[in-house]
Amino acid sequence: MTSTTHSRPPGPGGPPPDKLAFTAPSGRRRVTPVRVGREFRRDRLLPQLLRKAVLDDEGQQCVQVRLSAKDAANPAARALLDTEAGTAVQLGQVLGDTEYAALFPRLIGYELDTAEPFLLYDPPRGTAVSRIHVMGAADQEIFTRDLMLALCLLEGQGLVPRGVSPATVLWDGARVQLWGLESVTRIGRPRRPWGRAPFCPPEQRGGEGTADPRDAVWSAAQVLYRLATGRPGPADRPPADLGEHRKLDRTLRDAFAPRAADRPMPAQVLDLVAPGAARRVRAAVPPDETRPHHEAFEEALRLKRQAPAARPREQTGSGVLCPYCLETIQLDLTKLFVTDSRMQYKPLDLKGINNPVRRTDVMRGAVQKCTADPEFPTHYIPVPYLTYGRPLTVAMVGQSSTGKSHLLTQMIAAITDGGLEPYGLKWQSVNPEQHARFVRDRVQPLRGGKVLDHTAALGMDDFARFVESLLITDPRGQVRPVAFFDLGGEDLVRTDAALRFLLGVDALVFVVDPALALPLPQLDHARERWGVEVNRDGDLAFGTVLDRLPKDGGYVDVPAAMVLGKADLLRFQPPVDRWLTRPPATSLDPALTRDESRDLYGLLRRHAGQAWLRPFDAIRRCTLHIASATGGQEDHGRYPAGAGPRRVLEPLLALLAMHGLIQVPGGADALAVGEAPALEAVPWGGEEADGEFVRPRGPEEPEGSEGGELQ
């Protein structure tokens, strides 16, 4: 819910207040009357609108930064507001009540999943330096210290502000406050043009290379030159008169270097004006609490690597495994059917179809009745499923309302949009009519912002059916049918027939609902809306499935991916914030996949507990992923800006790689369990027996391996 713009400023005699609902950085939900003032644009090149406001439940003065409904329909504008909110939340969590918190605007609350998203800040402290003509030498020194402190703190969080300029830096005569947080990007991300010369560094202006903390040093130096001289500096080189300004020349001469590599880091400049300040800043930041969880992840991978290799699955006969009855079936031209206009099956007689092109096309849309198990309920298999070798079945696993259906729908949509092409894979539908129905009934409504219905429950005697199937062609020209199953969580728990197909399944996607798994306060509002509670015992559907699958060598050997779905609920929570905003990859990097798996493992182990990691612990090859099928939460039954998926294809790409359809460095196993380090792969200190080393019992590894203004 957003407030309505009023023509008069807040105060007595103004219009009655509107209600404003938002979430505080702590996660607490707040609803309050609000009075708002006149609206203006901070920067004519940016979509954000600003206005003063008073929260009448406490009489709290603040500034609202918001998007109009028109601007909010643009995903790029929403992304800017998300970036601003995420940076403000992160800085608030890290800096808390320290003296450094005042260097940045303090966020009061935010509401992003609505038609007119907004942020609320404490009022700005100071005046934008664009209003200051020149600054005295003593103030310049304090100003430089504070600005470099801000840049050091951002660098410590892996962030670079691209928008440091006289319009975004405020000064109150004693301290700096840095705004413009929508410009922040992550260190190492590709540079994108941002800002105006001369405050925008040359490489950023040209969109060359990757973001570097020294980009902001250039911008800060240009702001200081303007404050020292009253005029802007050159856009691509040091000012010719820099030597006439002794302090500026001493601290920032190299900061004007055209190349980032030739500029000092923020900490180097800071220590010139305030020796030892950089060390004190580092000490003020809370210590890393993820290390023991990351170490536990590495130990789990080591145990998986040392487990006996699983025996290859046996192929039964020359046919394929029916995904329903689990019996072998072969193509039989006497048992083919097609659907009529009323979607009823009728027999297909191929005798009168002699044209090979038409015959192939007709068979592609046909199904075969499977009679391999006479006692199994009647079921039909698409003909292409039987003519391209061994199919690959993928099952979505999780309790109801975890977002499995939305995630699967966006996976298929990403494939049809060409998401597999960078990996050398091509696709076509197994059954064109079935695929067209899937797109019409699921993909198009979801993309249009409609919330999909929950997966319909099965009858007690019903069986699992795949909801979509595709033919995937790998770079070698080999074709495999891939079928996707989406079961309601209650079916996995109560219906044995729904579980039977798991004995023949080839890949599993376990979807974790953060509202059920993570007792974080920012999820309390979602839990209240959905009427759910945190379950410390894990997902019941996970356990049911894992108990049904056989183990080989101590582990289940069906490749799997665990996905933290609805990750937009945690888009400001480390490490979700780092992964959810990563640009789409064009190749599979095993090291990056393991990093994401390690980070999500650490988040779940730290906050949810080991029960939620049971799939990873039980399955030998299991990767972990962060994804959002919609990019935001629904508002009155719809997604205000449509459903914007993030990282939905990565779990499937990992599964395809573990099945050999995508080649990755080190092989399919390396993607999930990593490659053994030398000390692990080569036995040491053991005794020789029959020409081979035998590992000693006990500990096996040595220690240590390892524009507008705000006034």
Automatic annotation (TrEMBL):
Biased amino acid composition, Pro residues: 9-18
Q: Would you say which domain of life the source belongs to? A: Bacteria
In this chain, the stretch annotated as Disordered covers 1-24, 681-711
Tell me what organism the protein belongs to: Streptomyces ferrugineus
Task: State what protein this is by name.
Answer: Protein kinase domain-containing protein
Q: State where composition is biased (Acidic residues).
A: 701-711
